[in-house]
Each structure stands twice: as C-alpha cells, then as structure tokens.
Amino acid sequence: xxxxxxxxxxxxxxxxxxxxVKQFQNKKLTLSVIATxxxxxxxxxxxxxxxxxxxxxxxxxxxxxxxxxxSTSSESVVTHYPKIxxxxxxxxxxxxxFSGSIDLFNQIxxxxxxxxxxxxxEATVGAGLPIISTLNDLVQTGDEITKIExxxxxxxxxxxxxxxxxxxxxxSFSQTVKEAKELGYTEPDPRDDLNGLDVARKVVILxxxxxxxxxxxTLQIENIVPKELREADASTFMEQLSNYDDYFSxxxxxxxxxxxxxxxxxxxxxxxxxxxxxxxxASHPFASLKGSDNIIAFYTKRFPNPLIVQGAGAGAEVTxxxxxxxxxxxxxxxxxxx
Amino acid sequence: xxxxxxxxxxxxxxxxxxxxVKQFQNKKLTLSVIATxxxxxxxxxxxxxxxxxxxxxxxxxxxxxxxxxxSTSSESVVTHYPKIxxxxxxxxxxxxxFSGSIDLFNQIxxxxxxxxxxxxxEATVGAGLPIISTLNDLVQTGDEITKIExxxxxxxxxxxxxxxxxxxxxxSFSQTVKEAKELGYTEPDPRDDLNGLDVARKVVILxxxxxxxxxxxTLQIENIVPKELREADASTFMEQLSNYDDYFSxxxxxxxxxxxxxxxxxxxxxxxxxxxxxxxxASHPFASLKGSDNIIAFYTKRFPNPLIVQGAGAGAEVTxxxxxxxxxxxxxxxxxxx
Lengths: 338, 338
Hints:
- 2 copies of one chain form a homodimer.
- Chain A is of the alpha/beta class.
- The first copy, chain A, has helices spanning 12-22, 53-61, 81-84, 96-99, 102-115, 132-140, 154-163, 173-182, 191-194, 197-210, 234-240, 245-257, 316-335; strands spanning 2-8, 30-37, 41-44, 47-50, 66-70, 89-91, 119-120, 145-151, 220-221, 260-268, 274-281, 293-300, 307-312.
- The interface between A and B is large, with 49 and 49 residues.
- Chains A, B: This is Homoserine dehydrogenase.
- Chains A, B: InterPro entries: Asp/hSer_DH_NAD-bd, Bifunc_Aspkin/hSer_DH, HDH_cat, HDH_CS, HDH_short, NAD(P)-bd_dom_sf.
C-alpha cells in the first residue's frame, strides 16, 4: 500500500521529517511525499504554483489515502484543521490549534471523531518523547489523572539546571541566560522563553487531553522577565538583566539552604494548574535533570509513584521522529502491522 | 462498532484487565468479553465446557472482529500464537513467546505480518510503561539503537535501591532479601528473581524488537544466587544466605567508595548484551530510583542523551493498563479515532 504525505512548512523540522520519510523502506508500505507548501509557493506533484491552502487541501483530497503534516507554527494554518480533517488525516507539532481557542480545539476534535480521520500531535509537547500517546492511553483506559508536572522547555531546563544545582554553580542568572542564548538554546529574544507562554501552551494541551478545559487566558503563568524589562528593546533587556541577579540569587540561595533546587515547571492539576518557578528537593527526579532535557511525571490512580518520561524535548531530528511515529500509527491502521 | 475480546488465564492480571474493560464507555466502540479460559474450563458465550484451545480459537474465529488476550505465563499457550494470528489479533504480557526459541518468535512475527493481524505485547517489559511501543517507533522510523539499559525487575530494583544507597543503608543483603520476600515483592522462592532469568527474558525481547537475534542460551547472565545455594531447598537458601553477606557488603563498599551504587541491570548492546550487577555513579538516573520502580534508558543516534522511561513495572493494574492500551490500538485501527 502507498500512503501519501503532504507537508506544509518544509523548514528545519519539515525537512528533517521529509529526510526521515525518504529513508523508510518496507515491504508492505510505501510513503510518498506528494506535495509541499511554504508561505509563497507550493509544489503539487510536479507543478509549482502560488500557495493556496484550499487548493492544497483539494489536491490532497484527490490523492487519497493522504496525511497532511503541518510543520509550521502558524496560527492561520490551524484554522483549516477542521476542513482538512473532513477527508484527510493530520499530523503536526504545531501547538496553536490545541492551545488556542477552546472552540477551535473542540471543532478539531469533532472533525476527527465524526469523519474517522486521525489527528495526532505527539510532537506538540516534548518533541518525540512518548507524552501525548501515553496520556491518551492513560485517559482512554480509564485511569484517573491526579497531577501532571514537568519541565517542558529545553531552554528553561538548561538555564535552571545550570543556575540552580546542589553544590552551587558560581554563575549569575543573567550570565546563564547569556550562555543559553550564545549556545542557540533560546529564542532570538530570550524573553519569549522566560515569559512562560511556550510552557503554558503545553500545559493547556496536556490539560485538554486529560479532559480539563484549560485556557491560556485563565492559566496562572509566572512570567520571570522582570516587569521593568518587559517593554524594553531586546538589547536593553540583555544589558540590564544583570540588575536583577540579586533577586534570582536570593531565591536560589533559599532553595539550596533547604537542599532544594529551582526548576521552572508546568503543572496540570484538577485543583489548579499553573506554570511557575518552584523548589524541588535534591532527591526529586527534576533536580538531577541534565543539559536541556525535558521531563514529565504523570501521577495517576494506577501510578501513585509517577510514570516518568525524560529526554531531549526539542531539536529537528527528535521532533521529526515524533511526527513520523504519528504517521506510522495512521499507516498501520490502514495496512496492518509493518 | 463492537470488538470482541477472549481472555486466556483470567487470574490476577486477567481479572484486572477484564475489570478495566468493563468500565470502558465510548460512543463509537463497544468492547465485549465473549470468552474466557483457564487450565480446566472455558466459557464460550454462555456455555461452560472443558478447556480446549483449538475449540477456543475456533469460537473466536467465528466471532470476529476479535482479539485474544493471553494473560497466562504458559509456555504451551504461546505455541498456538501463529495459529491464533492467522485470523485473530493477539495481546499479551506473556514473555515466553518472544523470549523463547527464535523460530517461534519468527513464526509469530510472520503470521502477524502475512495475515495483517496485530500482535502487541507492551506488557512483556515494564508492564504498562511505554517501552515496547517506544522502541518500535524508534526502530521503524529509522533511528539507530546504540544501547538499551534498564532495571527491569521490580524485585531487584527494590532490593538494590534499599541495600545500596549513597549515605549507606545499614541492612545486610540477606536482610534486604528477607524484607522483599515478606513484603510480597519476590517470587515464592526469591532465587527465581535473583537468578536473573526474568530480566534476561526482557533483554532478549528488547534485543529482538531492536533487530538483534538474542537468545537466552547465549546471553551473558550473572546469577547472583551463591553457587552453593542454587540446589538447596528454599528454606535452607533463606537461612544460609546470610553466610554470603560479606561478599555483597564488600561489593557495596567498593561501589560507595567510588560514589557509586550497585544496580542489577539488563543491557542490549550490538557489541555484547548482558544481564549483570553493575556500578552506577550517584548522578546517574538509575542511582536515584526509588521503591520497586523500573527504569529504561534508550541510547540512540537521535537521543545520545538517553530517552528514559520509569515507573511501576509490575502489578496487576498497571500490567492490565498495558494490555488494555494495546487492545485500544487495535480497536482504533478498525474504528478510527475514539
């Protein structure tokens, strides 16, 4: 059998995905990338024309069976998901459709359920780590989620693993942020990591998959960008962040004095979800995290000691891996075991 | 749609599974347990007759679509897997079919591939933890496995987490084994845990899923039951184990002197797989494991810092969860998203 794949946004992640797909070889299943689209041009089979998402979807509808892979982070592409899911399967690492308006989220879910089209988004949280699939399995088999807690930002993982460690680290907070930026771990403007919005989107997604109607508007989010620097231009922010080193050093010292470390965590909790800087005891799995790894702990009725998943939660190859795993799940529902 | 389920061996795990299934409610999917079989009797619909696996399979074949769930640890049931898979899907936590003869393993795999019937066995390693599914995703999407290492026995996890900890523990090895037995963590004869065979079976399964033709006959397995006590009767073993406390204390002391702890691990490695007692640095995730949790680290080309999964790897509810997740994967391939 042959499954067609159409990729929107063949950037860094999209290209890694296409490369992984091209190397796939299997007796029962052939995967073909039949169309790609960026913001200007789209390739449909062998013809290159101006981008038009309606025509892109039409082309895919005419070339079944087909999966659309949205590899953008676009807010406009996700508004087309309900239409895509009328006849096509969808795989995406794009958080916007699942963490934005709850109406859109519900429309996406209904479209998938009613039309029997799969909508998988493993890579929206923790890239290729088995997080969404595990949560879905827990929920659908009737387990009760009591809490989900995790470090969902590679950037903030790196920053606090470095800044706040048992035994001390001798670097200031601003210096750690500078390092992270120089190593390419942060967004061009590190405030886009430090404001917690990216983590919040992931918490909203995990909450909704758990059955809690979370939304960005009502979620408690601790923005750790100092108030006075939120409106400053980017270079001023980087220059003046050191003025706030004492504040972070004091927090860190208090944590270390109680044999704890600081970690920036997202938490899904039926009694109150949040995104915040918290203290964790030295023996907690979050305390011994290294590099820029993500970690997530599912506390459930069946797993009172949490089920934990950890590893690289960002990067083109591991994100593409999560997307490709989703595509293979869809393929196996058509062709059987491979 | 309705999917039928037939359970072989409705013991502790089988009953937990059936209970979870009974609580399942979904608009698109109905699950019905239509048959059960133990070593003496089987129930086919409403009739109870003497057990006969051929007739059991026949009944299931006549009541499609159907999944057989083998919840035994029987070596004889697994010989019927190729026949079952001719027309039926199969889900099982029974390790025997996947860690025994490589011929049988290949027959099972071929039967599933050729007949388009699913054969899922998530719960053969780490109960409901997403281990086999993650490994399958890594392998099928073209990642390269460089090493898999883990603590796969809840019993041996408990024993060494207790006996060998940074800061010292003040219990002898024999005392720790006694405690584990009293708490119900061990097999009736703890030597069935300490001999490493159960861990070895899991290593063989993980190896084969990775594409390495491992076998119990050739795998290096460190049996930590003292040689002189291997043939003794069970009570003599428990009485005389304390004679070997010095040996284990010395190993432990050496480990702790190098800021390491002892852990009994299984390792899949293209350059030589093994099951052995090893030292791990205090900062290694295996060193901070608690209770009787399992942990597994996948080292791959895409995940040079390992992808780690940890949590309860034994117990009726979490094993049933793994089996139920597998059943839902099969159901979704028929009915679409649920």
